[in-house]
């Protein structure tokens, strides 16, 4: 059963409190047996050996790691990140909607487009946070209770250099066996990123008491603060107006 789908559907009707409450109760009641409600602990991993400096004023990383609420929320709290937008990557424009992607056969993955200043944080450091605290890279086509290729762990490389760095880092981490299991993260060339619907943006910040956020995603931000204190920013950089 796909909990994130139920949670997203509840968000879409957030102006109807009674229906929303019923949806959330049903979501928790149907949580798969044997699946922990709390987010997994962070895995402390070494930085990439191959992480060349960039002379660009700005760079973009597109990463998929399960429900985009949590991945966006983590990177919105990272120093050097100018923006983090939830969206879809891997499929075609016509299917880049939540209703279509939720079916799981569009080729899209729930993704986050991260624009960052490489003078403040490198692409390799972005990947280190992604692998360590933003998601579990050893799970194949799922993250926790959310199952399907739309929740796969994927790095959408914007250029051959990003693909090379990501491939080398995965090999480095697998060789060191820091996770105990092989990394399932795939590397795909980025075709186009499509921003998600407005109600998905800044969802963690706007809904800190949402059961899905409380159990799965807020602990990721706590892990970011603990494992990467030099990278943590208290005030998130938000998509919404006035952020």
TrEMBL record:
Record-listed E.C. numbers: 1.8.4.11
Keywords, comma-separated and alphabetical: Oxidoreductase, Signal
Catalytic activity, reaction form: L-methionyl-[protein] + [thioredoxin]-disulfide + H2O = L-methionyl-(S)-S-oxide-[protein] + [thioredoxin]-dithiol; [thioredoxin]-disulfide + L-methionine + H2O = L-methionine (S)-S-oxide + [thioredoxin]-dithiol
Pfam family, one: PMSR
InterPro entries found in the cross-reference section: Met_Sox_Rdtase_MsrA_dom (IPR002569), Met_Sox_Rdtase_MsrA_sf (IPR036509)
Gene3D superfamilies assigned: Peptide methionine sulphoxide reductase MsrA
Active site (UniProt): 67
A GO molecular function held by the record: peptide-methionine (S)-S-oxide reductase activity
Signal peptide: 1-38
Coiled coil (UniProt feature): none
Domain Peptide methionine sulphoxide reductase MsrA: 60-212
Function: Has an important function as a repair enzyme for proteins that have been inactivated by oxidation. Catalyzes the reversible oxidation-reduction of methionine sulfoxide in proteins to methionine.
Similarity annotation: Belongs to the MsrA Met sulfoxide reductase family.
Protein name in UniProt: Peptide methionine sulfoxide reductase MsrA
Organism of this sequence: Variovorax ureilyticus
Lineage: Bacteria, Pseudomonadati, Pseudomonadota, Betaproteobacteria, Burkholderiales
């Amino acid at each position: 059963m796909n909990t994130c789908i139920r949670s997203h559907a509840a968000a879409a009707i957030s102006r109807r409190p009674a229906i929303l409450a019923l949806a959330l109760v049903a979501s928790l009641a149907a949580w798969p047996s044997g699946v922990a409600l709390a987010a997994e602990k962070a895995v402390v991993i070494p930085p990439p050996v191959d992480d060349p400096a960039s002379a660009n004023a700005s760079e973009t990383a597109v990463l998929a790691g399960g429900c985009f609420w949590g991945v966006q929320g983590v990177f919105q709290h990272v120093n050097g990140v100018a923006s983090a937008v939830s969206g879809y990557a891997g499929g075609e424009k016509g299917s880049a909607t939540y209703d279509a992607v939720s079916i799981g056969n569009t080729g899209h993955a729930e993704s986050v487009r991260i624009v960052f200043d490489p003078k403040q944080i490198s692409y390799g450091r972005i990947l280190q946070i992604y692998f360590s605290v933003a998601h579990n890279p050893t799970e194949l086509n799922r993250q926790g209770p959310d199952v399907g290729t739309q929740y796969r762990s994927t790095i959408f490389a914007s250029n051959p250099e990003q693909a090379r760095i990501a491939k080398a880092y995965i090999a480095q981490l697998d060789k060191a066996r820091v996770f105990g299991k092989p990394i399932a993260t795939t590397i795909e060339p980025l075709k186009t990123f499509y921003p998600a619907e407005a109600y998905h943006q800044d969802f963690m910040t706007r809904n800190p008491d949402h059961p899905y956020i409380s159990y799965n995603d807020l602990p990721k931000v706590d892990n970011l603060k603990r494992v990467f204190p030099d990278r943590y920013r208290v005030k998130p950089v938000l998509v919404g107006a006035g952020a």
